[in-house]
Amino acid sequence: MPVIDELIRTEDDGSISFGNYKLAQKAKKSDFEYQGDLYKVKTCREITKLERNDMFVYESVPGTTAEHFKALDDGVEFTACGDQDAQITVQMENDSEYEVYVNGAAVGSMRTNMSGKLSVSVELEEGAEVKVSAVRRA
Fold it and tell me: How far is 123 from 87, CA to CA, in rounded Å?
């Protein structure tokens, strides 16, 4: 999976891709318009962070590239790439339960707290991508 040289872009399928985990120094792009909202990405080897209208959306430590990121009515899905294992946190609904999948395999049910943050650890290595999705349980 290539890094995103422009830091953030819209894909043909209507999703967004962002992040460049190969940068030694932090880079950012602000005021990226997507579906009527303004996005800001900050990325480098240590961290990748995405905000929508100045509100938290995504963070990975260390930095990653996220492709085809889609926030859905009942969850989120994206493909992550990096050169080392990462902790990824995404903003979801407050106090809700989600089934989390990595590469199509269920890794467990997770409940968000009052802040709505959901964290998942993924095993990453250079040249490989990992599909992550979280679906709200009824």
Answer: 9
